[in-house]
Amino acid sequence: MKDQNCIFCKIANGDIPSATLYEDERFRVIMDLGPATKGHALILPKEHFANLYELPDEIASEAFVLAKKMVTKLTETLKCDGFNIVQNNGACAGQTVFHFHIHLIPRYKNDQVGLTWTPGVLTEEDKAEILASFGR
Ligand code: AMP
Ligand code: ZN
Questions:
Q1: Mutate which of 13, 18, 28, 42 for ligand 1 pocket (most atoms within 8 A of beta carbon)
Q2: pTM for this one?
Q3: What is the 49 CA–ligand 2 centroid distance (Å)?
Q4: How confident is the model at residue 2 (pLDDT cuts 50, 70, 90)?
């Protein structure tokens, strides 16, 4: 299924040109137009799913296997020092395009990418509440 108003549907299905690194029946991998670092790429499913909650299990599994392949090849090409895989769900989590995608972000020693946070403390209350919701 495609969404007429979705830019990533158009890119994934080739209706808008993109710098495509890889393509198969289900996915297109493109270079991000606003890269965090050199080589930042995006995995786009060709079908429209707004986010991870909507993504079918089969596509979720294939997407992660593809992420592994792309990261391996990109690391060789770019000679980067590490990689972050980032996947935002919801505006408050930084999602700006509401078509599921996975960011592949090459990391270089001393780059200026800010993906870190200040660690909090796992309280007994939070731990008990969340474990209970898993029946533990
Ligand atoms: P997110 O904030 O997780 O929704 O990520 C959206 C990403 O898509 C950002 O990193 C943008 O730079 C990137 N982006 C938006 N429009 C395009 C486009 N037309 N081609 C390539 N990348 C895009
Ligand atoms: Zn879409």
A1: 42
A2: 0.97
A3: 6
A4: confident
Residue 75 Cα to ligand 2 middle (Å):
28
Indicate the DSSP class of residue 20: E
Alpha carbon distance 52, 48 (integer Å): 11
* 101 tagged catalytic: yes
Residue 3: which pLDDT band, with cuts at 50, 70 and 90? confident
Residue 55 Cα to ligand 2 midpoint, Å, equals 12
Return the residue matching tokens 């040109």.
Answer: 17
DSSP 87-132: ---SGGGT--S-S--EEEEEE-TT-------------HHHHHHHHH
Residues 6+ positions from 83 with CB-CB distance below 8 Å: 71, 74, 75, 104, 105, 106, 107
- The arrangement of strands across the sheet holding 41-45 comes to 20-23, 27-31, 41-45, 102-107, 82-86
